[in-house]
Amino acid sequence: MILKNGIVFLEDKLQKLDIRIENGTIVELSTNMVGEENVIDCSEMIISPAFVDLHTHLRIGQEYKEDPEITIKKAIKGGYCAINVMPNTLPPVNSAPMVEYVRKITRPEGFLVMATGAITNNGLLAEIENMAEAGAVAISDDGNWTENSFIFYQALKYAKRHNLLVIDHAQDMVLFKSGRIYEGQVSFQTGLKGFPKAAEAHAIYRDGTLNLTVGARLHITHLSTVMGLDTISFLRHLGSRVTTDVTPHHLLFDDSAYLDYDTKVKANPPFGDDRDRKALIHALRSGEITAIATDHAPHSEPEKDQEWEDAPYGIASIDSAFEALYEGLVKTNLIPLEVLLSALSTKPAQILGLEHGIQVGNSAHLALIKENVPHVIASSMGAKNNPYVGKESSAKIAAVILNGTVVYRNDQ
Amino acid sequence: MKHLLGLEELSRDEILSILHLAAPMKDIILREVKKVPTLRGKIIGTLFYEPSTRTKNSFELAAKLLSADVVSVSIATSSVKKGESLKDTVLTLEAMGVEAIVIRHSRNGVPAYLSSFSKASIINAGDGQHEHPSQALLDLFTIQQHKGHVEGLKVLIVGDIMHSRVAKSNIYGLSKLGAEVIVSGPPTLIPEEVKGYARVEYDLDKAIKEADVVNVLRLQLERQEAGLITSLQEYHRFYGLTKERMAKAKDDLLVLHPGPMNRGVEIDEEVAYCDKSAIQEQVSNGVAVRMAIYYTLMGGREE
Question: Model pTM?
Answer without folding.
Answer: 0.90
